[in-house]
Specification:
Keywords: Membrane, Transmembrane, Transmembrane helix. By secondary structure, the chain is mainly α. It is built from three helices and no strands. Helix 1 runs antiparallel to helix 2 and helix 2 packs antiparallel against helix 3.
Length: 252
């Protein structure tokens, strides 16, 4: 646009100069003027080109600056976006790691709790089983002891009863035997005494009648004989009784 304006002005200037030259009717002047005008036109054209180049350069510089600014903005935006993405990724990774750690800790705690509960349940079951076994063993032992005690008591009672019965029977038998022996001994003693008395009486009668000995002597003799016989009988009875008592004691 600027170049076109300059060119129009230049051509207007050239036309005016031509009019001046025509009007002046001087060829040399016209030639010089034309040359001068050409030089001026060339100079003006160069200036215009320079100006245009400068404008182009300025526009290019502006474009470059805009591009650079845009590139810088884009780079900044990209860097910010990358930083944001990195921060988001880091935050997400940290959150995921924290969540995983928390989940793992929760799982570990749950497993530990489950293990503790299982161990406690097993210990309780073992304790209950041991208590039940101990109670059963104690009950069985008590029952066995009671049964044994009862059996022993019954056996002892039976043995005692049998022994008592045997002792009573033996004592009764011994007493009967002693009584019988005593009765027999007494009867024997009575018989002996009767026999002795009869013999003594016969002897006395014989002596008195036949021998004609005095009665006093006869009586004394009879008394002596009777005493001797009684002493002998008493000794025999005592010996028999002692023997019977010793036998009874030994048997019992």
């Amino acid at each position: 646009n600027h170049f076109g304006i300059y060119r129009m002005l230049l051509w207007k200037f050239v036309i005016n100069v031509c009019f001046i030259i025509i009007i002046g009717s001087k060829v040399v002047v016209v030639v010089v003027v034309v040359e001068v005008v050409v030089v001026v036109v060339v100079v003006v054209e160069v200036v215009v080109v320079v100006v245009v180049v400068v404008e182009v350069v300025v526009e290019v510089v502006e474009v470059v600056v805009v591009v650079v600014v845009v590139v810088v903005v884009v780079v900044v935006v990209v860097v910010v976006a990358v930083v944001v993405v990195v921060v988001v990724v880091v935050v997400v990774v940290v959150v995921v790691v924290v969540v995983v750690v928390v989940v793992v800790e929760v799982v570990v705690v749950v497993e530990v709790v489950i293990v503790v509960v299982v161990v406690v349940v097993v210990e309780v079951v073992v304790i209950v089983v041991v208590v039940v076994v101990v109670v059963v063993v104690v009950v069985v032992v008590v029952v066995v002891v009671v049964v044994v005690v009862v059996v022993v008591v019954v056996v002892v009672v039976v043995v005692v009863v049998v022994v008592v019965v045997v002792v009573v029977v033996v004592v009764v038998v011994v007493v009967v035997v002693v009584v019988v022996v005593v009765v027999v001994v007494v009867e024997v003693v009575v018989v002996v005494v009767i026999v002795v008395v009869v013999v003594v009486v016969v002897v006395v009668v014989v002596v008195v009648v036949v021998v004609e000995v005095e009665v006093v002597v006869v009586v004394v003799a009879v008394v002596v004989v009777v005493v001797v016989v009684v002493v002998v009988v008493v000794v025999v009875v005592v010996v028999v009784v002692v023997v019977v008592v010793v036998v009874v004691v030994v048997v019992v």
